């Protein structure tokens, strides 16, 4: 493919400089871009970037990139990409800070299998270990390559009912273990976030038991922290931006006292105002053929 002219054309030879967007009802959107070697058709499924992080291989397609338009919800691909991007490309390279980022589908699988396994709890023919295996066994198999024990932080993105929230497990399996819960719409259902934390705690106990072939010395619940004065969204679509920025701020400068975590005091300049553009630029900076995709960014930002 030759280098592209940074403009979009219509189906005609002398098309306008604007993108030709067609809603075909299936792939969603088609763009036709003029290049020096001809015309390239891009669809919603066109791959912009394929990147390998330590535990995840992520493919970012045009449809994913377009959810970074204003008033759109971030999807799981964008959330997974940016959380891993923060850990691998933004954080200083310090071996003293070890971070595991779980994929968004982890919580989806955990919550579904947990709900299904509750039926088995009443089965008197099952041992306690068999009941735990029914609740968590398949999920642990899914994340068998992820490190849960020799890490400082475990990042858990959570999506329920098209709303993003975040759990950060700090210093797991130590006396300093804490579970931080971040929700930019906490007033909607504070008990739900508590239930999420409990299920994460139960899963981590299961991880320890299966990987070490023994139960934890203490089976007490990990202390759950809801940061004071946590910024709240003013709309119904920016939740994904909030959780990725919560994670970025925290990982770059973790509070010294988690038990008295005042978010606004720690990060007084917190904002998600330009976060969509930040993520767009991060994706484009890693694209091998960024000149093909840059015009799309220009068009999106004219709308923002």
UniProtKB/TrEMBL annotation:
PROSITE patterns found in the cross-reference section: ULP_PROTEASE (PS50600)
SUPFAM superfamilies in alphabetical order: Cysteine proteinases
Pfam families named among the record's database cross-references: Peptidase_C48
Ubiquitin-like protease family profile domain: residues covered: 58-250
Protein biosynthesis recorded as keyword: no
Low complexity bias (residue ranges): 7-19
InterPro entries (UniProt xref): Papain-like_cys_pep_sf, Peptidase_C48_C
Region spans: Disordered: 1-27
Key word Cell wall biogenesis/degradation present: no
GO BP, sorted A to Z: protein desumoylation; proteolysis
UniProt-recorded Gene Ontology molecular function terms: cysteine-type peptidase activity
Keyword terms, alphabetized: Hydrolase, Protease, Thiol protease
Entry similarity comment: Belongs to the peptidase C48 family.
Name of the featured protein: ULP_PROTEASE domain-containing protein
């Amino acid at each position: 493919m030759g280098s592209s002219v940074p403009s979009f054309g219509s189906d005609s030879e002398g098309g306008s400089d604007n993108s030709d967007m067609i809603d075909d009802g299936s792939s969603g959107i088609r763009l036709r871009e003029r290049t020096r070697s001809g015309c390239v058709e891009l669809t919603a499924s066109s791959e912009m970037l394929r990147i390998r992080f330590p535990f995840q291989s992520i493919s970012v397609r045009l449809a994913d990139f377009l959810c970074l338009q204003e008033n759109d919800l971030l999807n799981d691909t964008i959330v997974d990409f940016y959380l891993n991007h923060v850990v691998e490309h933004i954080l200083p390279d310090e071996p003293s800070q070890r971070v595991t980022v779980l994929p968004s589908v982890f919580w989806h699988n955990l919550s579904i299998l947990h709900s299904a396994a509750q039926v088995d709890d009443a089965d008197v023919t099952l041992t306690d270990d068999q009941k735990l295996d029914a609740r968590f066994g398949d999920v642990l198999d899914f994340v068998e390559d992820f490190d849960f024990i020799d890490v400082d932080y475990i990042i858990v993105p959570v999506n329920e009912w098209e709303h993003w929230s975040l759990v950060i497990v700090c210093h797991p399996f130590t006396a300093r273990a804490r579970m931080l819960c971040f929700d930019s719409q906490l007033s909607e259902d504070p008990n739900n976030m508590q239930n999420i934390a409990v299920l994460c705690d139960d899963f981590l106990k299961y991880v320890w038991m299966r990987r070490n072939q023994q139960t934890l010395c203490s089976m007490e619940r990990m202390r759950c922290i809801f940061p004071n004065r946590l910024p709240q969204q003013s709309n119904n679509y920016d939740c994904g931006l909030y959780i990725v920025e919560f994670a970025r701020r925290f990982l770059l400068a973790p509070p010294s006292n988690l038990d008295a975590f005042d978010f606004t005091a720690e990060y007084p300049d917190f904002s998600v105002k330009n976060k969509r553009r930040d993520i767009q630029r991060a994706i484009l900076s890693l694209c091998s053929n960024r000149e093909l995709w840059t015009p799309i960014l220009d068009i999106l930002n004219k709308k923002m």
